[in-house]
Amino acid sequence: EVWNPNGKYRVVSTKPMPGTRWINLLIEQDCRVEICTQKKTILSVEDIIALIGDKCDGVIGQLTEDWGETLFAALSRAGGKAFSNMAVGYNNVDVNAANKYGIAVGNTPGVLTETTAELAASLSLAAARRIVEADEFMRAGLYDGWLPNLFVGNLLKGQTVGVIGAGRIGSAYARMMFLKANGEQPVTWKRASSMDEVLREADVISLHPVLDKTTYHLINKERLATMKKEAILVNCSRGPVIDEVALVEHLKQNPMFRVGLDVFEDEPYMKPGLSEMKNAIVVPHIASASKWTREGMATLAALNVLGKIKGYPIWGNPNQ
Ligand code: DGY
Predict the structure, then answer these.
(1) CATH number reported for the structural domain that contains residue 184 in this entry
(2) Ligand 1 site-directed mutation target among 67, 86, 88, most atoms within 8 Å of CB
(3) What pLDDT score does 195 carry?
(4) ipTM of this predicted structure
(5) I want to staple 236 with a disulfide (CB 3.0 to 4.6 A). Which of 31, 98, 120, 251 is the partner?
């Protein structure tokens, strides 16, 4: 799909993105906007090289793409100056490779903070009250009357909430969960404690760290074993923060332990056994999926690329 074919600067988006504000912004600044509409969900490096072509000033890409040496070299050969991920996380981007080719890298922080925290809070509450299991039960026609023992879950009021990775999103989640307890003392944000203490003491733990070498498999077999048998673990950060094989085993051994997962180690796949676990709620990486946020992310990504092309400041710049 091509907008403003005679525009001076060629900007490629590897996916259609929500709204039209981002397209208009680029068009107003003399860009030709090309949007890849290939059906394939995850584009390969070769697909993206073909999209970049011989002349390309900037690319807006997605977290499913491998933005490493090969792609930055191709973008540089095409005269490119800027790349923006349409995501706050940029573990799929080799920023050093981009720097080597003089290509600016942008991300989209801020607009997704509350939306992502809301999904983490939703998963926490849904896991506590077994909402997905109960929904499946209803749809299967199994409900034949109220029972004292039917889908009894956990009351969160008075429980301890732990946050691992108390950045923008983790802090917003902590505020939401604190509000849930009407601001009363017992729901505690364990920011100041050590991670192992949080894992040992919290009833609900939400993971919000950046994925890098230090946080890969942060939640492993040993750490899972230190958590409460009835704890709830939520992950809306990146899949590899949890050792998913160890998690499946832990869920099997501890039926009262519950997880709410938005992200997975090898997306789009789940490790064997996870989809059968009743004590797991799984959703397809939708933490930032509210209309306002996704339009905002698209707009910021466009501004990032435009910024570099036109010499404006870049909004989300991991190098800063
Ligand atoms: C991000 O932005 O990093 C999320 O994972 C997708 O919104």
Answers:
(1) 3.40.50.720
(2) 88
(3) 87
(4) 0.97
(5) 120
